[in-house]
Amino acid sequence: MLTHDAALEWIARWDRQQEGYLPDREERFTALIDAVEAAGRPDPLVIDLGCGPGSLSARLLERLPGATVVPVDADPLLLGLGRAAYPHLRFVSVDLRTPGWTDSLGLEGPADVAVSTTALHWISGPDLAKMYAELAAVLRPGGLLLNGDHMETDDTAPAIARLERAVHDRETERVFAGRRPEDWRQWWDAVAADPAFTELHAERATAGADHHGSESPLLSEHVNALRDAGFTEIGSLWQRGNNRLLCAVRG
């Protein structure tokens, strides 16, 4: 059995390995939650897209205890971790690439905000467009999407794209000075060696939930798909190099 305390320890380890790719991860979390708070509701209904083990959802509720947060992911193991660590959250198992995914959320009304961090780049361009269109249908007019991720400036501005990557890489080098924490694969290998995850690993294998590569890393792909889905204002609220917090307002 995966205990509450063990789950919290594994999520802390997850956070450390994520910071190896995002040394300013907590700063981006803070900016994202600042934006949710500044949107004006003390009790927002928030959908966390690709929530993983719930790192962002838990931080949102710490800052905004009146919020209702619906964390959504397709990975059974990460969902199992989140459910063990944060029993007060209602995690939803659903693949954002599957049409009708919003029907599984159990929403009682339009959502105020959808959030995501380091997740939506796994979705290919055509599926991303469909996902954003379905999301727009469950957000209230004026509702927000806040997506924190690496999003590359495209080939129309190659010099800026190169400098954005350089800014991020140099920040990473300064923070870690060659002493990087465990990486993504090392974390998953360590989880695989823990017998507490045996059942969750079997479920994950059956679900085919493993990631196979970044498929929509370009900023323009997200902006164009959001415009097509009916979001009227789109821009970056926070940025360091190619790591940015993209905000879109539903029309």
TrEMBL record:
GO biological process: methylation
InterPro entries per the UniProt record, alphabetical: Methyltransf_25, SAM-dependent_MTases_sf
Coiled-coil region(s): none
Keywords noted in UniProt: Methyltransferase, Transferase
SUPFAM superfamilies registered for this protein in UniProt: S-adenosyl-L-methionine-dependent methyltransferases
Pfam families for this protein: Methyltransf_25
Statement: the UniProt record of this protein carries the keyword Chloroplast: no
Domain Methyltransferase: 46-143
MF term (GO), any: methyltransferase activity
Matches recorded under PANTHER family: TRANS-ACONITATE 2-METHYLTRANSFERASE, TRANS-ACONITATE 2-METHYLTRANSFERASE-RELATED
UniProt-recorded name of the protein: Methyltransferase domain-containing protein
